[in-house]
């Protein structure tokens, strides 16, 4: 198992949990909640400073980055705020409880990609504990 894949999923879950707490506070003040989507894909990427000396940016580029961005874009269509690919799922410890979702078409990929989440189970667990 790859610790970076597990860390990415844990951080995504934590971001959504903190956002839930934040949203409860701002809704009590009469504001609309903020919604985000987290898309994770594991693989090689080119990371570094790119650009001219006048305009340098630190970024990541490559197919892995593009797939992660496309998976993030699927969160709204699928209705699940945390999604990750088979590339990430295969790197998680076997003890991880993941839910497979129907494969999705994404721009730039010849075949539909397999996607997974842990978030459905998280919300069911929260409901059972309430």
Descriptive report:
The protein is of the alpha+beta class and 130 residues long. Helices cover 44% and strands 25% of the residues. The chain has 4 helices and 6 strands. It has helices at 3-28, 63-78, 86-89, 119-129; strands at 38-40, 46-52, 55-61, 82-85, 99-104, 113-117.
Which regions are unreliable across 5 or more consecutive residues at pLDDT < 50? none
In helices, the fraction of residues equals 40-55%
Number of strands: 6
- Oligomerization category of the chains in this entry: single chain
Q: What can be said about the biggest beta sheet?
A: 4 strands, mixed
**Which geometry do the CA atoms define?**
globular
Strand order of the largest sheet: 1-4-6-5
| N→C terminal distance | 33 Å
Number of helices: 4
Structural class: alpha+beta
SSE order, one letter for each helix or strand:
HEEEHEHEEH
| Beta-strand share of residues | 15-25%
Give me the Rg, rounded. 17 Å
Overall average residue pLDDT: 90
